[in-house]
């Protein structure tokens, strides 16, 4: 007689409990592959777990076979259930906190590196015309430390010459500064908008052939088009030069190139830096007044002030921010005032605002006194004129009184 093996109820129950798990496992295997973000998160989680596990191993006795190793670690090891067992971080909480802190720093560094790579990829796509951007340069951008764009107009030939006679090098000196120090200086201007090019455009063509210090934009010049000009300037500059910083300065401001380079070099390792003299002026709703803001209602109740932003005479932004403007320039809103527009583009981002008061010194005697005290100014102008009053006549005097000296820029470590 053949006996049937006894029915094992425990085995059946185990199989019954295991069945949903098997089905769940099959369902998980059938899902779509993990996304990039999920894979990155899994990698970070594995990295953290590895650090914690490595910390656990470090806390184990050096010699598990004897009491001597455990005694060195100051831990009692017992094989019984009632023995004192060491838990992770129980006797060395500082070690665990240090591991967690280092892990947090590593994750932050990884996040910044990924953000930088994504931004560089987006810039390259924009430069090549892929990814929604507009290609404005057909050759790879030149490496530079800083690009200084001097905002100018068709009627400002005398202003430009006053700068060429003071702080803007001419000819071969300009090329040498660019090649050896990575400091690029260009007068920034568009076109007149006249069909086929008018007399203003022809005069500028002649000046450019003589000086070779212009950056020509695909932009129709106009006082109420400064915000558009700023967007196009950064877009064109990013496509032409791969620089650490991009500066915008007006053509009636005195600038010390060495001091500017020295100040910016201190922020070179920081991402998303916005440097200038930060202010928060009133939003002017009255029509007909200077700096009137037609969209004043967007800033809240009447009498409100703008958010903090750099004054428009001179400011600098880092590479990431210039790239952001270049990529998104078609959808960046333009307010009436150019400096407000730039501040609005950056206010919602993770940006470090650097309030550098040396970039808005007054003209002599203010900048002269500071120079004698060893605090040479980056830039000088008159607040009452939003630039140097009568700059064509006074720029030489200001340069003599407040200038850093011609050789200063060559001694700056960049």
Biggest sheet descriptor: 7 strands, mixed
Number of strands: 9
Q: Segments where pLDDT lies below 50 for 5+ residues?
A: 1-11, 24-34, 56-85, 130-137
User: What's the overall geometry?
Assistant: globular
User: Helices and strands: which structural class?
Assistant: alpha/beta
Strand content: 5-15%
Estimate the helix proportion, in percent.
Answer: 40-55%
Distance between the termini: 97 Å
Mean pLDDT across all amino acids: 81
Please state the CA-atom Rg, rounded to the nearest Å.
Answer: 32 Å
Total helix count? 13
User: What is the H/E order?
Assistant: HHHHEHHEHEHEEHEEHHEHEH
Major sheet: arrangement of strands: 3-2-1-4-7-6-8
Mind explaining what this structure looks like?
The chain is an alpha/beta fold. It has helices at residues 9-30, 36-59, 67-73, 93-128, 157-164, 171-181, 199-211, 226-240, 257-265, 319-328, 338-347, 366-372, 391-402, and strands spanning 142-151, 183-191, 214-220, 241-250, 254-255, 273-279, 309-318, 352-355, 379-380. It has 13 helices and 9 strands. Helix 7 links the parallel strand 2 (183-191) and strand 3. Helix 8 packs across helix 10. The termini are far apart. 29% of the residues are buried.
């Amino acid at each position: 007689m053949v006996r049937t093996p006894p029915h094992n109820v425990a085995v059946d129950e185990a199989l019954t409990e295991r069945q949903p798990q098997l089905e769940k496992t099959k369902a998980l295997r059938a899902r779509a592959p993990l996304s990039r973000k999920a894979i990155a998160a899994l990698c970070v989680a594995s990295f953290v777990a590895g650090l914690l596990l490595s910390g656990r191993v470090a806390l184990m006795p050096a010699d598990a076979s004897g009491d001597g190793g455990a005694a060195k670690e100051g831990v009692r090891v017992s094989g019984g259930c009632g023995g004192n067992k060491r838990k992770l971080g129980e006797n060395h909480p500082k070690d665990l906190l240090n591991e967690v802190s280092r892990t947090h720093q590593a994750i932050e560094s990884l996040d910044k590196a990924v953000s930088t790579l994504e931004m560089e990829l987006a810039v390259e796509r924009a430069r090549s015309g892929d990814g929604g951007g507009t290609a404005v340069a057909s050759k790879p951008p030149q490496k530079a430390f800083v690009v200084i764009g001097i905002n100018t107009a068709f009627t400002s030939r005398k202003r430009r010459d006053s700068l060429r006679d003071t702080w803007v090098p001419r000819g071969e000196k300009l090329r040498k500064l660019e090649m050896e120090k990575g400091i690029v200086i260009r007068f920034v201007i568009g076109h007149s908008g006249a069909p086929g090019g008018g007399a203003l455009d022809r005069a500028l063509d002649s000046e450019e052939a003589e000086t070779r210090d212009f950056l020509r934009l695909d932009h129709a010049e106009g006082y109420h088009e400064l915000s558009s000009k700023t967007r196009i300037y950064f877009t064109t500059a990013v496509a032409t030069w791969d620089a650490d910083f991009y500066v915008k300065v007006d053509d009636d401001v005195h600038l010390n190139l060495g001091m500017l380079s020295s100040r910016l070099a201190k922020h070179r390792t920081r991402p998303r830096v916005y440097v200038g003299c930060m202010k928060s002026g009133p939003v002017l709703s009255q029509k007909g007044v200077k700096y009137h803001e037609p969209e004043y209602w967007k800033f809240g109740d009447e009498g409100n002030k703008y958010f903090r932003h750099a004054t428009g005479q001179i400011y600098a932004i880092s590479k990431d921010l210039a790239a952001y403007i270049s990529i998104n320039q078609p959808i960046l809103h333009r307010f009436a005032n150019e400096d407000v527009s730039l501040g609005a583009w950056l206010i919602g981002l993770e940006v470090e605002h650097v309030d550098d008061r040396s970039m808005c010194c007054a003209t002599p005697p203010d900048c002269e006194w500071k120079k004698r005290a060893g605090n040479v100014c980056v830039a000088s102008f008159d607040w009452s004129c939003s630039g140097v009053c009568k700059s064509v006549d006074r720029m030489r005097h200001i340069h003599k009184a407040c200038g850093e000296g011609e050789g200063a820029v060559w001694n700056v470590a960049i």
